[in-house]
Specification:
The protein has helices spanning about 1-15, 20-25, 45-50, 55-60, 65-70, 80-85, 130-145, 150-155, 175-185, 200-210, 230-240, 255, 275-285, 310-315, 320-330, 345-360, 370-375, 385-395, 420-425, 430-450, 455-460, 465-475; strands at about 30-35, 40-45, 90-95, 105-115, 120-130, 190-195, 220-225, 240, 250, 260-265, 285-290, 295-300, 300-305, 330-335, 365, 400-405. With about 475 residues, it is of the alpha/beta class. It is globular, with a radius of gyration of 29 Å.
């Protein structure tokens, strides 16, 4: 019975894994797949590869890869390189002209097909980044145009970042302390690490620092490291040299465009680790080298980096190199969550009402007391940005001059039936509860070791520096 079952299962597997069925499956894959033989002749390409390269599959099969892509040579074709060397090439950026003369940019992974130490051909998986690359280069070109010498002279007084410390709204001691610290940091040229949850206003602080510094009349350029594919980020930051890869032009990167000013690198923990080492070298040497270039170019750029997580946590989880962290964290600024400065809710609320009165041509006077109670009790996971969006949304449809409980978004309705004390008691998130527990454990352990930080760190199995950071964070003495 068992043997018969295996035989039936094997027969079914053979019927499923036929050449025709496999080709059907491969046509549903979004990436382009091509297979060539030892001579470079195309033996297979899926539907995505045909569409990407504007090929007629029936015409392409049997033709040499270099005939299909006339802009490539044996030296520049990743497939031909893999056949020659027998070694795979991963995530390689390539720009070429396809059969119809269109310029295409792809990220390729090419793998040799080997049987009993004999190379039979190669397989290539391609992802189209033509539009992403074009948009990225357009952004860089626009920034270059914006910051050329003539425009910089015209903008000497105005600068290139729009926010200043007067735009940082709040009366709480946390915000006052942050503004004082950031203002002092602005007077120097050291690197700065800014961190805080999404919506707390990190770029607002960063732009304010730039505008309060001696570099205020020079370029301010921001780049979100998570918004650009890792394979493109290096060329966007450092620029490219003509011939560095097929289709590459001489193009300055953001470092060169920000020369003399400030380069803001947001979500730096999303930057690939290997690129972080190159960034570290630039910070230490003050020189950049365009991708594919042999000469270096001096740059004078202040780096301000930001992330939406604790930097030490990013280091521990290997998102951020420790040496880069120490180089960037000369000045560290944490942006507090809105729930940590509840006294600013009313100040921000009134500010946004004035803002949207002007924008929407309204005459809203304020909110009823019950709404203010709900706002004070709410935990604001989206921080200041969420508060601003809530006010804008309500004022768009508001008919009267006072915001009531009935005007609140649906997810606030449950808060309207509880007391302010209940709201406050129930608004503790999982993260807050974990932090309370962590604080309690650290305090108890320090008490047992009579305040010996080194011994406590060993017992808690954490680096001494991390323990010191958490003691400072929780104000444990």
């Amino acid at each position: 019975m068992g043997i018969n079952s295996l035989k039936i299962g094997g027969d079914r597997m053979k019927r499923i894994l036929t050449k025709k069925n496999i080709e059907k499956v491969l046509d549903y894959i979004g990436e382009g797949i091509q297979i060539v033989d030892i001579d470079g002749k195309i033996v297979y390409c899926n539907l995505a590869a045909a569409n990407l390269d504007n090929l007629n599959r029936n015409e392409a099969i049997g033709k040499n890869i270099l005939d299909i892509y006339p802009s490539l040579t044996e030296a520049t074709s990743t497939l031909m390189q893999v056949i020659k060397s027998g070694h795979p090439i991963y995530n390689f950026q390539q720009t070429f002209l396809n059969y119809k003369g269109y310029k295409i940019t792809t990220i390729n992974s090419s793998i040799p097909i080997i049987e009993e130490k004999e190379i039979l051909g190669a397989l290539e998986i391609s992802r189209d980044i033509t539009q992403v690359k074009a948009l990225s280069e357009k952004v860089v070109d626009l920034q270059k145009q914006l910051y050329n010498e003539e425009i910089v002279k015209k903008r000497e007084r105005k600068g290139t970042a729009k926010y200043t410390f007067s735009d940082v709204i709040g009366a709480s001691k946390e915000i006052k302390r942050l503004k004082e610290k950031a203002l002092r940091a602005a007077q120097n040229l050291s690197s700065i690490m800014v961190y805080g949850s999404t919506g707390t206003g990190k770029e607002l602080i960063v732009q304010s620092i730039h505008n309060a510094s001696v570099r205020s009349s020079k370029p301010f350029i921001a780049q979100n490291c998570a918004a650009i594919p890792a394979s493109l980020l290096e060329s966007i930051l450092f620029g490219t040299s003509k011939g560095s890869f097929t289709g590459a032009d001489d193009r300055p990167g953001l470092f060169e465009l920000a020369n003399g000013g400030t380069l803001f690198l947001d979500e730096i923990n999303s930057m690939p680790i290997e690129l972080q080492s190159k960034l570290l070298r630039v910070l230490e040497e003050g020189n950049i080298r365009r991708v594919g270039d042999i000469r270096t170019r001096p740059v004078d750029v202040r780096i301000i980096a930001a992330m939406n997580m604790d930097p030490l946590e990013a280091v521990e989880k290997k998102y951020l190199r420790s040496d880069l962290f120490y180089r960037l964290n000369v000045v560290s600024l944490r942006i507090p969550n809105l729930k940590e400065r509840k006294e600013d809710v009313e100040v921000l609320l009134n500010f946004f009402i004035r803002k949207f009165n002007k924008k929407l041509d309204k005459q809203v006077l304020g909110v009823e007391p019950r709404v203010m109670e709900i706002f004070h009790g709410y935990h604001w996971p989206g921080n200041v940005r969420e508060l601003e969006n809530v006010i804008e949304g309500m004022m768009n449809i508001l008919e009267g001059q006072l915001i009531t409980v009935e005007d609140l978004p649906y997810y606030f309705k449950s808060y309207s039936y509880a007391s302010a004390e209940d709201i406050e008691a129930n608004s503790i998130s999982l993260k807050e509860r974990l932090e309370e527990t962590e604080k309690q454990v650290i305090t108890e352990m320090l008490t047992k070791t009579k305040g010996n930080v080194t011994t406590t760190a060993k017992l808690l199995q954490m680096p001494r520096q991390t323990l010191q950071y958490k003691m400072q964070k929780y104000q444990i003495t």
